[in-house]
Each structure stands twice: as structure tokens, then as C-alpha cells.
Amino acid sequence: MSFDVWTADSSDWLAHWSAWPEREPHAHPAYASLYEGTGTRALCAAWRSDAGCVLYAFLLRDLQPFGADAADLITPYGYGGQFFWGEDRAAVADGFWRAFDEWAAGERVVSEFVRFSLFEDELLPYPGERQQKLVNVVRDLDPTADELWMDVEHKVRKNVKKARRTGVRIEFDDTGARLDDFLRLYLDTLDRREASERYAFPREFFARIPAPHVYVHALHGDTVVSSELVLLSQHHAYSFLGGTRSDAFDLRPNDLLKWELILWAKEKGKRRFVLGGGYEDGDGIFRYKRSFAPNGLVPFSVGRRVLQPELYRELTERTGGRADVDFFPAYRAGSG
């Protein structure tokens, strides 16, 4: 049995991830390191034993700017948590959490915030508070292509047919050859939606995203009018980021893009395509995604733990935060 905490440049983290049957992208060291910055380090807590293995990727954030010789942790953007594989989940959970909490105490970790995987069978049981935030859309890829076609909403079938009639075609790109086209559409879409600047990732961010992933482009003539970046695990495809030209909406390129992506992922042997959710419960983005899998609604949950209660209260009071607001940790309510 062994418990280790590795940095993103450790070959051990990559080797442990590579030995994992699922190889989920959000736990890859190169993916976690995309979110490193001043005072923020990507780390991985790993457990290996005859009973099973654990891989837990997270970001350790220095609390020096808050006047505390301490830290807190959060999982990278996307779907994470304490991924498990092996024979005895309960035995591994007991050993892992004892070892992890001992390490966290030594690092003076005040709080922990986890964005969980949608698939609970991949995770250890969590010892803290678990709260459902939104509902995500997941397209089961087990049905035949004909069954999938009849299982999307009527408007999707109508829009796919329209896109094909207007000459829209789909291109799959696993090399990033059209990265500049993707970036233009992605950033224009952020501006149109008045999204937070924190999502305006630079070109270098996309150039560093680890394989396997694929860009899916919808072209009208020689122009890319809709584009999406999809992250891949052994059994899942994850819609990550994308954009569409506003003057191409009437061509319905994104409907065709997502439909062809569903067929492509099925052909590649993936079990599920995760379309994600909306910004708010039941908003237009969520309803659009749901049209591709009306029955594929899966709860998205987060986990919260306070590991140093006295210091948590002190930081919350010092920063003017309120423990009763729905933001965690409360002392970061004004800074994110």
C-alpha cells in the first residue's frame, strides 16, 4: 500500500493516470496544470494497494493573500473527484481518506471544494457535504444509429436535415490544424454572451490541452461557422468549449455538428457523450443540449468540506464573508 501526493511535472502522476482503465481527461496532469498560476499548484493524491487505486487531481491555492499561512483546494474546471478503480471500494476509501486528511492537516488545508464526475461508480464515497447544483445532459451511445436518430427531439432532426441541404459539412481535427478558426468563434461567442473574462483562455491554453481530444468543425463553403472542442476518455466524450458565428445560425450548423459527433463517438467505441448543462437551471443552453438526449438527465454535484473550522471562521470574518451564503469557501466570495 502507498499514498503519495505528486506535482504535475512528476512522471509518477502520468504513469498512474495511464494505468487507470478510464483515463478521464480532467485528471490528467497536463490538464490540471492548465489552471496553475501564482499561488496555485496542480497536485494529485494517489493511493495504490491490492484492494484498489485512487487518483485525485486538485489545485492547492495559497491563502497568503488572505493573511493566512494556509491553503485551500479545489478541483480543476470540469468533472473530477477521487477516482477509484479496483476490488474493494470501502476498504480503499477508509485508508485513502485517513492518509489524505493527515497530509491536508500538515499543509494546513482549510477547505476543499470538489466538482464531481457525473458517474458515481467512478468515485470513492465522499466524507463531506455533497450538494446537487445543476442537471447535465448525457447522451447514451448504446442504441443503434437509427434509435439515436429517433430519440433526439423532432427539431434536431429538422435542423440536421436543413444544415445538410444548405451545404454544411463536418470535419474532425485531432491535430488543432484549425485552432485559429476555433479561437475566433469561441472568443466571439464569449463576447456575444457577455461571459466572464476568466473563460477567455489564451491560445497557449488550447495548445497545451493533452491528447486525446478532437476539434469538430462545421464548414459552409471554406468557412468554419461552428466549432467545438471535445475531450476524450476511454469511454466518454466531453463537450468542452465551442462557438458559432451569429450570422450562420439559420444554417443550423451546430445541430449537424453535434449529431455527427454523436455518430463519430459511437463509432469510436465511446459509451456516453456528455453535452454538459446550462449556466442556470433550465436556461436556453440547457434546453438546447437536452434536445439531443431528452431522457439523458444526470445530476451534477459538488462536494464541500471544512477541514480547519476555526481558521475558516476567522478568514470568513476577516474578509467580510458570510457563512450562510451559497458560495464556498465563504472567505473567497469576493474573489472567486
Short description:
The two termini are 37 Å apart. The protein has 10 helices and 13 strands.
Blueprint (SSEs and pairs):
Elements: E1 2-7, H1 11-19, H2 29-32, E2 40-49, E3 52-62, E4 71-74, E5 82-86, H3 89-106, E6 109-115, E7 129-140, H4 145-151, H5 154-165, E8 168-173, H6 179-193, H7 203-207, E9 213-220, E10 223-232, E11 236-244, H8 253-267, E12 272-276, H9 284-290, E13 297-306, H10 309-318
Parallel strand pairs: 4-6, 11-12
Antiparallel strand pairs: 1-2, 2-3, 3-4, 3-5, 6-13, 7-12, 7-13, 8-9, 9-10, 10-11
Helix pairs in contact: 5-8
Question: Explain this structure to me?
Answer:
The protein is α+β, with helices and mostly antiparallel strands and 336 residues long. It has 2 domains: 2-134 and 301-332, 3-Layer(aba) Sandwich (Aminopeptidase), CATH 3.40.630; 142-270, Gcn5-related N-acetyltransferase (GNAT) (Aminopeptidase). 30% of the residues lie in helices and 31% in strands. Strands 1, 2, 3, 4, 5, 6, 7, 8, 9, 10, 11, 12 and 13 form a 13-stranded mixed sheet that branches. 40% of the residues are buried.
Overview features:
336 residues; alpha+beta; Aminopeptidase; 30% helix
Determine the strand fraction and express it as a percent band.
Answer: 25-35%
Q: At the fourth CATH level, what is the homologous superfamily of the largest domain? A: Gcn5-related N-acetyltransferase (GNAT)
What is the H-and-E element order? EHHEEEEHEEHHEHHEEEHEHEH
- Structural class of the helix and strand makeup? alpha+beta
Estimated radius of gyration: 21 Å
According to DSSP, the number of beta strands is: 13
Outline the low-pLDDT stretches.
none
**Mean of all residue-level pLDDT scores:** 96
Q: For this structure, what is the CATH class of the largest domain?
A: Alpha Beta
- Fill in the CATH topology of the largest domain: Aminopeptidase
Percentage of residues in helical conformation: 25-40%
Mind describing the biggest β-sheet? 13 strands, mixed
What is the distance, rounded to the nearest whole angstrom, between the alpha carbons of the first and last residues?
Answer: 37 Å
Total count of domains = 2
**Helix run count:** 10
